[in-house]
């Protein structure tokens, strides 16, 4: 697939992209007041009142208990219904990905910190207190990042020229030290969208597009359409199967799919209006009955029993208890 054609696809999936658009060593940073005079020791504290105007990703980091959301004002954490947040380093984390040792992200640093933007790809193993610079620090932001929960595989959709990446899908199997272009043979969609990587096999990739889900077992070099040609707004792995949300006949659906056998199931979940599709899905790889989803209007739901009962954690970005 030619680079010129790849570039034309980067009108990235309309609904998901709308939410994103409208050191090698580690070092600890702390937020500072406007003139940089007073440091604030980094802590995870109880959120007395919670209002999120944008969600940039959700997930279950393996080094902590609870559901993380990456917001326009830093990390928020829900532990058993109680909301926590960082009191400093409130960066705008785009492309947020939970992994076994913490989380990965791109994005923009909070003003007043010593971090510079764009963040490139960074990693935190201590709940956001410090960031390890993996690649492209001060060079690029990535709205779409995918990573295996276990291991060192990374995927990005590159929208602008930045060496050594090609435009389109690129991957690294060594935590960002070296990169290759995914050749995407068989990929016929007219858009890129959310990517997901198998939690244990970094060569297995799925991508949601407005033409269905494309699946690859060779790091995106060959892609196969594994659903009907329908709009898919979010996808993640549920073990070896896929958990995804689609829009069908003006109705939002939540389904699982085994991409090898084709077996599919439809899941029950809280009703959502057609103009409020699911934008992010998360499964806890250490407890696959723990699943969450976020929507375009910043609603957040979670189940801890595999979908029999769902709990509303945020409504329009607000804690319903506030």
Automatic annotation (TrEMBL):
It comes from the Bacteria. Gene3D superfamilies: YVTN repeat-like/Quinoprotein amine dehydrogenase. InterPro entries: Glycosyl_F510_1955-like, WD40/YVTN_repeat-like_dom_sf. This is Sortilin N-terminal domain-containing protein. It comes from Neobacillus mesonae. The lineage of its organism: Bacteria, Bacillati, Bacillota, Bacilli, Bacillales.
């Amino acid at each position: 697939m030619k680079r010129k054609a790849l570039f034309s696809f980067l009108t990235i999936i309309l609904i998901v992209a709308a939410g994103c658009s409208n050191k090698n060593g580690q070092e600890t940073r702390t937020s500072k007041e406007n003139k940089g005079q007073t440091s604030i020791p980094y802590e995870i504290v109880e959120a007395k009142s919670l209002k999120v105007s944008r969600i940039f990703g959700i997930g279950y980091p393996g080094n902590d208990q609870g559901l993380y959301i990456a917001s326009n004002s830093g990390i928020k954490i829900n532990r058993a219904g109680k909301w926590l947040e960082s009191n400093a380093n409130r960066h705008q984390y785009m492309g947020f990905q939970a992994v076994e040792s913490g989380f990965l992200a791109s994005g923009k640093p909070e003003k007043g910190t010593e971090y510079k933007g764009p963040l490139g790809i960074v990693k935190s193993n201590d709940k956001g207190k410090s960031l390890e610079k993996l690649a492209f620090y001060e060079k690029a932001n990535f709205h779409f990042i995918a990573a295996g929960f276990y291991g060192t595989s990374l995927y990005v959709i590159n929208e602008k020229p930045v060496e050594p990446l090609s435009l389109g899908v690129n991957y690294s199997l060594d935590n960002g030290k070296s990169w290759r272009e995914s050749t995407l043979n068989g990929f016929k969609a007219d858009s890129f969208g959310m990517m997901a990587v198998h939690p244990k096999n970094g060569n297995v990739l799925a991508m949601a597009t407005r033409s269905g889900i494309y699946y690859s077992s060779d790091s995106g070099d060959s892609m196969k359409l594994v659903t009907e040609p329908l709009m898919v707004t979010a996808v993640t792995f549920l073990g070896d199967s896929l958990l995804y949300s689609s829009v069908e006949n003006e109705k939002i659906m939540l389904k699982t799919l085994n991409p090898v056998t084709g077996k599919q199931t439809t899941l029950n979940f809280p009703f959502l209006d057609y103009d409020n599709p699911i934008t992010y899905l998360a499964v806890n790889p250490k407890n696959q009955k723990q699943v969450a989803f976020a929507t375009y209007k910043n609603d957040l739901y979670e189940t801890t029993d595999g979908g029999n009962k769902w709990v509303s954690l945020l409504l329009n970005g607000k804690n319903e208890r506030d």
